[in-house]
Amino acid sequence: MPHPNNREVILQGTAVSPGIGFAPAHVLARGVATPETYSISEHRIDAEKQRFLEAVERTRVQLERLQEEIERISGEDEGLIFEAHLMVLEDPALSKRTNKAIEERKQNAESAFFAVIGTYVEAMRRVNDPYLAERATDIDDVAQRVLKNFSSVKDSDEYDSPDHRHIVVAFDLSPSDTVSMDRNQMRGFATEQGSVNSHTAILARSLGIPAVVGLAEAVLDVRENQPAILDGFSGKLILNPTHETIRFYEDLRKQKRDEQMALQELREKRTQTKDGRSITLSANIEFDQEIPQVRESGAEGIGLFRSEFFLLESGTVPNEDQQTEVYTRLAQGTKPHQTIIRTLDAGGDKLPAEPLLEPEPNPFLGWRGIRVSLSRIPMFRDQLRAVLRASAHGKLGVMFPLVSGLNELRLAKDILKECMEELHKENIAFDENMDVGVMIEVPSAAIIADILAKEVDFFSIGTNDLIQYTVAVDRINKQVSSYYRPTNPGVVRLIKNTINAANDNGIWTGICGEMAGQLELTPLLLGLGINELSVGTHQLPRVKKALRSLDYAQCTSMADKALQMPFARDILALSREVAQSAYPDLID
Ligand code: PEP
Ligand code: MG
Q1: Do the beta carbons of residue 58 and residue 149 sit within 8 Å?
Q2: Does 36 fall in a domain?
């Protein structure tokens, strides 16, 4: 049922790129349009094959142009998204099967191509794997372009943008849709599909466009030009907003802008509590193009560089020299602060290390994190050598994800040591004292933190995973999301155990999971004795303000109390109460 003309409708999704957009909806058609099908005579077969070849060639030229365009706007890594599209296009099996289908079916080229590409997409969608589902969207995108390019009329590769401000509403958006859009007129993306790690979400963030994904199916009932507001902070698409709603969002937008301006003033200020406890506040990033945002946010370096995004985006892992360039840019771009490179964390809900691998029954409990690196030693060595080489150009640190015990940590450190010895022999400079850390994100690692602390320079607690493994709740499964509670007493005690072990061994502890940016939990984390918080750049100034408004001594006694509490909700309420009185303007 289409949304009624005038009643306000609020659709809830997942906010993946912050900001508020006001504009009429512009609805994109779903999926790939079915082409016309007709029979051809024997003597047309070669001509149809030729038409197919030409459509593919035209598509290739367009994709290469789009790739250049996105590289110009957002940098080389974003452009690599189109490598995946070009690979689909150049797949010899695709052309072989299409040509065969033209011959056997004696049908026009577009219908033969449509049938063949449909089997690819079907196969990928049938496997219950988020990565392959996203690749299916890439294939749909390529298919759409090739089909358009069969037409002899010269088809523009311009996205059909209205010439007025609009919010794009779609089933899903492909990277090429996103890049082709008129960014001057676009006020946001709202899609039924998609996830935080989808290409579209990544691009929205780097282009600074508000975006909400994973909206209910109701998104498909949105009508062209229906008035809308997109709330990229709380993940809402509001259709036919009432006057009150419009006023609320105008105020909110103004408040966010004022806040942003006011927070700018904090940029150069130290991150210190009212009673003088210093905390290192650093940034989480995925791409080196985010270095300017890191600097603007006032971060003291990068606490988590999720290297898998750039390593796996193009389908082939960059070699040692290519990686050295990226890590060097990070080292130089964040001087005099530190950048911590997290080694490849493939698997789970992330990009797989090897796209053609058989899907695992329990990917979160499977081949991910350090386990992948330890079973692909040459790839791991390339990464470690690259990090070491870049460490000569600034302050770098390295840390290992998903370590469950001392064995993996020792193996990883041994390989690092071998890489250091090799570089010595090759007379290649590196920082001999580069910090080596371990992520604490598996309960067994948190429990033996006293053992691990003797082997590393720091701990970085990955609460996103630590919560899911401690409470046994899949971090992306909506059905059990009410169990995913950062203040679960078991989680809070594991964090405390980790901090105690670090203190006893003279090393520091940070948190780089999403919990580090949750302002109602800042008093709790501070009180537990955390030394570093690493958060997304858009959230960082708020966390700085929160920390500067708190009293460490008060938070310590609050945390002591929290550690004795049996219920997650009570721990949350306690921390929230302190937050509310210290910085009411930042708490909803
Ligand atoms: C975490 O698990 O908290 C973390 C920071 O790592 P990721 O979210 O990349 O798994
Ligand atoms: Mg993790």
Answers
A1: yes
A2: no
CA atoms within 13 A on the CB side of 65: 10
Tell which atom from ligand 1 comes closest to the C-alpha of 514: 3
Domain CATH for 341: 3.20.20.60
Q: Average pLDDT over the chain, rounded to whole?
A: 86
The DSSP-derived string for 496-526 is HHHHHHHHHTT-EEEE-SGGGG-GGGHHHHH
Q: Rounded to the nearest whole angstrom, what is the distance from the C-alpha of residue 196 to the centroid of ligand 2? A: 14
In the reported structure, the alpha carbon of residue 465 is separated from the centroid of ligand 1 by a whole-number distance in angstroms of 6
Kindly state whether residue 264 falls inside one of the protein's structural domains: no
Distance 293 CA to ligand 2 centre (A): 23
Question: What does the alpha-carbon distance between residue 53 and residue 295 come to, in Å, rounded to a whole number?
Answer: 48
CATH number of the domain at 209, please: 3.50.30.10
Rounded CA-CA distance 252/230 in Å is 12
Query: Can you read off the two tokens belonging to residue 406?
Result: 């001392």
Nearest alpha carbon, ligand 1 atom 9:
306
pLDDT of 171 reads 80
The predicted structure's pLDDT at residue 412: 98
Structural domain for 295, as ranges: 280-438
Helices H / strands E in the chain, number of each: 23, 16
Q: Which position has the token pair 């070491």?
A: 388
Q: What is the pLDDT of residues 250-276, one digit of tens each?
A: 999 998 888 778 888 888 899 999 999
Find out whether the beta carbon of 465 lies less than 6 Å from any atom of ligand 1: yes
Which of 382, 412, 438 is the last residue in one of the domains? Answer: 438
Q: Is the CB of 541 under 6 A from ligand 1?
A: no
Q: Which atom of ligand 1 is nearest to the CA of 513?
A: 3
**Percent of the chain residues topping a pLDDT of 90:** 49
* pTM recorded for the entire structure: 0.69
Mutate to test the pocket of ligand 1, among 463, 464, 518 (most ligand atoms within 8 A of CB): 464
d(CA 516, CA 530): 10
